[in-house]
Design goal:
Largest sheet: none
Distance between the termini: 65 Å
Shape: flat
Strand content: under 5%
Structural class: mainly alpha
Length: 474
């Protein structure tokens, strides 16, 4: 028996290595270097000699080796009195800056002068997201390059943040190149995970597999963690290569890393999302063998699969079992049932379940409303749709939904000659920082003019900007 168990374990290990080797072999043999972006930022016609090299990206000095210290005359401390304006004023000015050239030059100057500025994570995210919406990868590169002289004396978290910013901008090859150029003491697992996440967000799953293999092999201080393997498993599920995703669990255990509930939840989502219902049972068995208790998210994956197949009664049975034996279902669990009811044409059951959620102190979320409200509009139940809008705008545990959902209700109210109610809903939405360009009264001159004033390339929500402004008040 012992020899049979050993043989089975060896076979599983061989199968894992073979499957993942197949993926690595089918991927690009090396991680591609980042493409060179053409400078789009205009030269100033009469450039002034700057106190720092930040007046114009086109005029900046050649980049130093990553991690090198700034010049002796370059400011490296967080002495905020050297800033041209108070830090709070600079942060708010950057949030409102729509000229990408000025955004970059002002950002570079402030981040170079002030360590307090460099501690403001959210303003980095806003700036990078805005530049990405303008297609200004050169500006993103300039902002991140300006942070590199501070890496040698910065924290691991700062280095990780720079890599994550490239991930948010869908520039994974830049993220990988940045990792390889980090000071040696920052070439660790946390920044490595940020590189993997950047490839995952960009959907470059083959390149992710290559990086997973190559980076730890060439950097001994990088030891893939359970988080690293979970990113790999998710990528394999999305690829999709579900067999390799299963084998990744064997590989991580071989390397001394124990899978967690998130590992198996990711697998369950992969199998159920691809309608592999029977094979998903293998994942439940694997959890049981490892004495891991599934949580509500695991069962939500099963509910999602059942609803996708139209098996609403089976989904109801799963929720009833959870209510009786645990784990306790969450809002997402009930959202799946609501979706199942709506798909089956049982709108009244979906509405009743919504009311039960409120009575039982559950908090409906974006998924709840984005499932229910469109179905209510399709069924002509405008009063109920309007009530739900007031629930998520002003009720307990209010949440944000896609602005288009609110606009659909406004349009339906106007079409039903309920203009006053539509006007009030628009006003309420704007008080909650829904953008003017997405929420307006139909066919009004005033709103069309307001929409024309909005920058075409802007993709940052007003909510995000408000969060950054709140942060500046701290």
């Amino acid at each position: 028996m012992a020899s049979q168990a050993a043989a089975a374990a060896a076979a599983a290990s061989t199968r894992a290595n073979s499957s993942l080797s197949r993926i690595f072999a089918s991927s690009t043999p090396t991680v591609k270097p980042p493409p060179k972006h053409k400078q789009k930022i205009k030269r100033s016609p009469t450039p002034k000699p700057p106190a720092t090299d930040t007046d114009s990206i086109a005029d900046k000095k050649p980049a130093k080796p990553l991690g090198a210290q700034p010049d002796a005359d370059a400011p490296v401390s967080g002495a905020d009195h050297k800033l041209p304006k108070p830090l709070q004023a600079i942060l708010k000015g950057l949030l409102r800056q729509r000229d990408p050239d000025k955004l970059v030059s002002e950002f570079v100057e402030a981040s170079t002068l002030s360590s307090r500025f460099r501690d403001r994570h959210r303003v980095y995210e806003v700036a990078v997201s805005r530049l990405a919406s303008f297609g200004r990868q050169d500006g993103i590169e300039a902002i991140i390059d300006a942070q590199k002289p501070f890496l040698e004396t910065s924290t691991e978290g700062f280095a990780t943040r720079l890599i994550r910013l490239y991930g948010r901008a869908s520039m994974p090859s830049h993220a990988a190149a940045t990792f390889r150029q980090l000071p040696a003491h920052h070439q660790t697992t946390m920044p490595f995970n940020a590189v993997l996440a950047a490839y995952a967000e960009a959907g470059e799953f083959d390149a992710l597999a290559v990086a997973f293999q190559e980076i730890p092999a060439s950097h001994p201080s990088v030891a893939p963690s359970v988080y690293s393997y979970n990113i790999l498993i998710r990528a394999l599920c999305q690829k999709p290569d579900l067999s390799a995703a299963l084998d990744a669990v064997q590989l991580m255990e071989k390397n001394g890393v124990s899978p967690d509930v998130i590992s198996f939840n990711t697998l369950l989502n992969g199998f159920y999302n691809h309608r592999r219902m029977d094979e998903a049972e293998t994942v439940w068995d694997m959890m049981k063998e490892r004495n891991l208790e599934p949580d509500a998210k695991c069962y939500n994956a099963k509910l999602r699969g059942l609803v996708a197949e139209g098996r609403i009664e089976d989904a109801i049975a799963v929720v009833k079992t959870l209510e009786k034996d645990g784990p306790k279902p969450d809002t997402v669990s009930y959202n799946e049932l609501i979706r199942g009811y709506c798909n089956a044409g049982r709108l009244q059951d979906a509405k009743k379940l919504y009311d039960d959620l409120i009575k039982n102190d559950y908090t409906p979320n974006r998924g709840t409303y984005e499932t229910l409200v469109p179905r209510l509009l399709q069924a002509g139940e405008l009063d109920c749709a309007l009530r739900y809008c007031h629930d998520f705008l002003t009720g307990k545990g209010s949440c944000r939904v896609a602005v288009g959902l609110l606009q659909d209700v406004v349009d339906a109210l106007v079409e039903a000659s309920r203009v006053e109610e539509a006007t009030k809903l628009v006003a309420l939405g704007r008080k909650k920082y829904y953008p003017r360009k997405g929420l307006r009264m139909p066919h009004t001159t005033e709103d069309n003019e307001l929409g024309a004033e909005t920058d075409e390339g802007e993709s940052i929500s007003e909510e995000k900007e408000r969060e950054v402004e709140d942060e500046t008040e701290k």
